[in-house]
Specification:
- The structure is a single chain.
- By secondary structure, the chain is α/β, with parallel strands linked by helices.
- The chain has 15 helices and 14 strands.
- It has helices spanning 20-30, 37-45, 51-57, 59-72, 79-92, 103-113, 131-138, 157-160, 183-193, 250-260, 281-291, 294-312, 343-352, 382-390, 402-421, and strands spanning 96-100, 121-125, 142-146, 168-171, 196-200, 208-210, 216-218, 225-229, 243-247, 264-266, 269-270, 318-319, 334-338, 391-394.
- Strands 1-9-8-5-4-2-3 form a seven-stranded mixed β-sheet, sandwiched between helices. A three-stranded antiparallel β-sheet has the order 12-13-14. A two-stranded antiparallel ribbon has the order 6-7.
- Helix 5 runs parallel beside helix 11 and helix 13 crosses helix 15.
């Protein structure tokens, strides 16, 4: 029509091909024109974790719990701290829960309580959040990096014994992304070689491990000591920082409490070197409310994961998260492996479609500058190196709607298939 400007002036011949970047840009740019208002609303509200919506469902409980703390002004070591630790002990079926300031402190306190000495070797995966190994370095211990399993991303049991030396004192398995490490053989190796087992359970509280005899034991409660984080985005998260340590050893329980409290059992009587690491009363009150909803939260995450699993099944560019038979996976993250496409380009196109994504973790511990002087010897970490280049995580949380899951999975498939065609 007169006065109208054509949308496209370029008309390729049968021998001409539109550039890959141009076609993908068209898909992203003009997709909103065909979306209804509801779809566009979904796009603007997508987050890796939606704490605001979660809070809305428990607002009255949370507000009341916070107000009670303010009314009593018992901001440090108030009764809510004891109430929470008692409730968590019951939930986990563990004898001792020692609250502390954060998950990193929990790991540090655990290692301090075991009297580990500078130069002692700690076997741990390199593919983990850095705090796991940061504490090892802080205490002047030596991290010995172990490869991970290709399916679960947790420490590879078959490689552990090869790394044990006379200096080895502990194994630190990480229950990663919500899935348990394979604890039964790890505990057997530790017993055989008289080693401690410190479980890093920052990402899998609410999950459990099933032993070959049918016993189900909560993650973090199988080894010598377990640790966790209550960072806000965790499956059980507070509204600030928080952490905890677990043990079934009575003597160790006493020592862990001492280390977390300036090395004292009795006020002003300091028997050992400790630190100052407390869970404040406000966070304990919040956690006590959220603990009552933890199973519901984990179930909600599992349902999102099931939806994604079905949506992505059969696509040879995507390897969905593996579910080990021994692990009750609670999906702190939904982390896939992608191949045959540029991950950076995939993430950029997802962002244009309003879909956040993350890489957990872009640089493994053994490649961090902090550990540049560590000799890996003949240790093979090829899979770890490959994973950091090929994993991608997409939104998964307790408040996701079917419409959000459908939009994310449909857009993800559209983009990855388009990238794979060029």
């Amino acid at each position: 029509m007169p006065g109208q400007v054509p949308l496209f002036r370029f008309k390729p011949s049968s021998q001409q091909l539109l550039p890959k970047s141009f076609v993908l840009q068209l898909l992203i740019t003009f997709a909103p024109l065909f979306m209804n208002t509801s779809t566009q609303t979904i796009m603007t509200n997508l987050q890796m974790v939606d704490l605001k919506s979660q809070y809305a469902h428990i607002k009255e409980e949370i507000n009341q719990a916070i107000q009670e703390v303010i009314d009593t002004t018992a901001f440090i070591n108030g009764p809510q701290v004891k109430n929470f630790t008692t409730a968590l002990e019951k939930y986990l079926d563990v004898k001792h829960v020692i609250p502390c300031a954060n998950g990193t402190d929990a790991l540090q306190i655990a290692m301090m309580a075991l009297d580990l000495q500078p130069g002692d070797e700690i076997i741990t995966p390199s593919y983990t959040y850095f705090a796991t190994v940061e504490v090892v370095g802080l205490l002047k211990l030596k991290p010995v990096f172990c490869e991970v399993d290709k399916d679960t991303f947790t420490i590879k049991v078959e490689e552990i014994e090869k790394l044990i030396t006379p200096k080895t004192r502990a194994i630190v398995p990480v229950h990663l992304f919500g899935q348990s490490a394979d604890m039964e053989p790890i505990l057997a190796i530790a017993k055989k070689h008289n080693l401690y087992v410190i479980e890093d359970n920052a990402q899998a509280i609410g999950g459990h491990y099933t032993f070959s005899d049918g016993r189900k034991v909560a993650n973090g409660c199988m080894g010598t000591i377990g640790t966790t984080s209550f960072f806000p985005s965790k499956n059980l998260g507070c509204y600030g920082d928080g952490g905890a340590i677990f043990t079934n050893d009575d003597e160790l329980g006493i020592k862990l409490k001492m280390v977390a409290n300036h090395g004292q059992k009795e006020k002003y009587i300091h028997e050992i070197i400790g630190c100052n690491s407390r869970l404040d009363t406000m966070q304990a009150a919040i956690l006590n409310v959220k603990l009552q909803h933890l199973d519901q939260y984990c179930d909600a995450r599992r349902k999102v994961a099931e939806y994604y699993d079905q949506a992505f099944a059969g696509n040879d560019r995507i390897k969905i998260p593996f579910r080990a038979s021994y692990s009750h996976h609670v999906y702190h993250q939904y982390t896939m492996q992608v191949n045959g496409v540029s991950r950076d380009e995939l993430m950029a196109k997802l962002k244009e479609a309003g879909i956040p994504s993350m890489i957990y973790y872009p640089i493994p511990a053994h490649k961090q500058k902090m550990f540049a002087d560590i000799d890996l010897g003949e240790t093979n970490l090829d899979l770890t190196n490959w994973l950091v280049e090929n994993v991608i995580s997409i939104p998964i949380h307790t408040e996701m709607t079917t419409e959000q899951m459908e939009y994310i999975s449909t857009q993800f498939l559209t983009i990855i298939n388009a990238l794979a065609r060029f």
